[in-house]
Every structure is written in C-alpha cells, then in structure tokens.
Amino acid sequence: MLETMQDGDLYDRGAACEALGRIGEKAVTPEVIAAMLHCIRDDDAGLLFAARQGLVEISKNGAKLDVIGGILKTMRDEDWWYCKKLFKVLEEMVEEAATPDVIAM
Question: Which domain of life does this protein belong to (predicted)?
Fold first, then answer.
C-alpha cells in the first residue's frame, strides 16, 4: 500500500490512505505518515480527504504524537498553501493536536 500511495493513480492512492487509516496503529510507520502527508500536497479533493481522514484515524488509534510530529516536521520550510492543508488535519484532530509544539506555532 505504501508504494501505491506514492506512485498509484488518484483512486488507488486514496483507497490506500483510507485502508491504512482503518488498520490504525499497526499501520503507523514514519514512511506511512510521510506518504499520507505527501498525498495532501495533491489538489484532488478526494485524495486530500482520504489522506486527512487516514491521518486522523491513525492518530485516534494511539499514534497521535507520531502524526503530529510528522506534520510539524513537514511544515518547516513549506509554502503557505501546503501548511494550510496541514493545519486542516490538526484542526480535525482537535484535542489530540493541543500540544505545546502546536500551540507555539
């Protein structure tokens, strides 16, 4: 699924994000988080939604610090439009995202 998220067509990339989100904590690796964050760069609304939901789901299943850390690391030196998309993920995580690092941004 990781390879599909990076190189597949839009539908397959979205389906992989959704599936990994449903798998939950067992699916959490730095590579999976990075691949979902990469999918958020895309302008396709369906893929954006699937990647956001995948990140939110894996964060709910015990990997919130991994997801938040991945988002914060990715936001450094990025353009404002991509950061805005990443803030949307944090917004959907609400309570999980209320960490000192996020608040300091």
Answer: Eukaryota
